[in-house]
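Please fill in the sequence for the structure shown.

STRUCTURE ENCODING:
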């Protein structure tokens, strides 16, 4: 009886949280100034270019067109995003095609923002399924869901035109089916994972680290369970030829698309991810590509980074602070709205988590262990990439954004929900405390968002 009540309570709470998410993001989509979210003007411009182009891929001269007024507080990054479209084009291409379906009496900007909200709603649906798969306790799943929904930068980004929303969706689907594959070893899950990995690579090149980590886990699982995987493949082929044919066809099409795009880049530019100078003249890069300009300026004003263990520890501390700050606060286009209370609260709860781990870290749940390993590996790759940028350019805060960890944010939140205050042995008491903390944070974050930003 009590279990039924808890499950029903959890179900209604999840529904209310989804409703809350829709209300907030719709409000943000209608009220946040165009160009305020990260790189929104430039995503919007590239989507328009794909919409207006008669070609499947944009020609170089089409990439440099600015079809919308640039009201963002810096020059257009037309050349910067054009070179990204040489490899990671799927978000701009697909939304450019969807813009033709805007038969409603709303602006293209609002239409695109609504599509991005839909991406995030689908993300939250798969997050719920993933949390349920790993945690198995609907009370903890509800806590995890509440914690995710209230992240200010997640709300802000969800209501913006940004390819990060599609990358987050592709990431959560890949992770969900990865854990299903770890659990059941069904070959259709393997096909789905590979399909979404290939889509993710075509969406944003920074998806590559997660693709590599998932690939390593898959190889490990296949080697360990060769017989089960082979039996599953034969079973799918003989019992459901239609599903097998559809999945294999999609996989082949996406694999060939990736191969063609990267091979074409290598043939034309001698690089699978060409930079601005390989595509355009240096003069165009200087005038159009602000990243190119910034790198030149940084090179001229480079301060030699400090070496040694103490310097690495200092950079690590700064990196953690920047990442937390740009997750629990709003980091927009050339601006950052920071509230110290958010930052201090986040650090406090992370410290409590570490204390909980010291007293009660258990590894019996293999899926939880895999979640920890995958998240940690991804965080390390992002940290290492940022650190290399610091060594090269001498600017410790360069390129550090909380949203860059969103592809594995789901796993981090699930891990947090499972271990936060885990030293409290009374399960019901712990659940009440954790949910109360999450509820307090949700009201606090929402009040800050409305009172100080909107």
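FILLED IN BY: designer on duty
SEQUENCE:
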């Amino acid at each position: 009886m009590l279990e039924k009540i808890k499950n029903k309570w959890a179900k209604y709470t999840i529904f209310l949280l989804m409703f809350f998410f829709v209300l907030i993001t719709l409000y943000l989509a209608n009220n946040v100034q165009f160009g305020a979210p990260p790189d929104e003007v430039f995503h919007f411009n590239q989507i328009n270019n794909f919409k207006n182009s008669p070609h499947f891929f944009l020609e170089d001269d089409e990439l440099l067109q600015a079809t919308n007024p640039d009201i963002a507080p810096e020059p257009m990054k037309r050349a910067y995003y054009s070179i990204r479209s040489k490899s990671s084009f799927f978000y701009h291409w697909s939304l450019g095609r969807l813009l033709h379906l805007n038969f409603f009496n709303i602006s293209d900007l609002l239409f695109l923002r609504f599509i991005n909200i839909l991406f995030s709603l689908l993300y939250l649906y798969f997050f719920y399924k993933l949390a349920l798969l790993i945690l198995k306790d609907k009370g903890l799943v509800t806590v995890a869901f509440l914690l995710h929904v209230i992240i200010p930068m997640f709300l802000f980004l969800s209501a913006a035109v940004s390819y990060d929303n599609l990358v987050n969706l592709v990431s959560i689907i890949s992770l969900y089916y990865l854990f299903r594959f770890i659990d059941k070893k069904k070959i259709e899950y393997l096909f789905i994972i590979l399909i979404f990995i290939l889509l993710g690579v075509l969406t944003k090149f920074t998806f590559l680290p997660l693709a590599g980590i998932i690939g390593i886990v898959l190889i490990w699982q296949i080697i360990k369970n060769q017989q089960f995987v082979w039996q599953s493949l034969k079973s799918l082929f003989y019992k459901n030829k239609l599903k097998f044919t559809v999945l294999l066809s999609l996989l082949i099409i996406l694999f060939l698309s990736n191969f063609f795009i990267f091979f074409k880049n290598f043939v034309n530019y001698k690089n699978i991810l060409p930079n601005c100078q390989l595509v355009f003249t240096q003069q165009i890069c200087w005038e159009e590509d602000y990243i190119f300009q910034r790198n030149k300026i940084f090179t001229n004003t480079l301060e030699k980074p400090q070496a040694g263990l103490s310097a690495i520890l200092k950079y690590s501390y700064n990196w953690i602070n920047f990442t937390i700050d740009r997750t629990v606060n709003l980091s927009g286009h050339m601006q950052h709205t920071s509230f110290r209370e958010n930052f201090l609260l986040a650090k406090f709860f992370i410290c409590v988590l570490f204390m909980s781990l010291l007293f009660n870290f258990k590894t019996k749940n293999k899926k939880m262990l895999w979640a920890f390993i995958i998240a940690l590996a991804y965080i390390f790759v992002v940290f290492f990439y940022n650190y290399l940028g610091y060594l090269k350019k001498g600017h410790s805060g360069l390129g550090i954004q909380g949203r860059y960890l969103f592809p594995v944010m789901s796993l981090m939140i699930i891990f947090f929900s499972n271990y936060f205050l885990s030293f409290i042995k009374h399960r019901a008491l712990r659940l009440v405390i954790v949910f109360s903390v999450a509820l307090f944070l949700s009201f606090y974050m929402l009040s800050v968002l409305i009172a100080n930003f909107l």
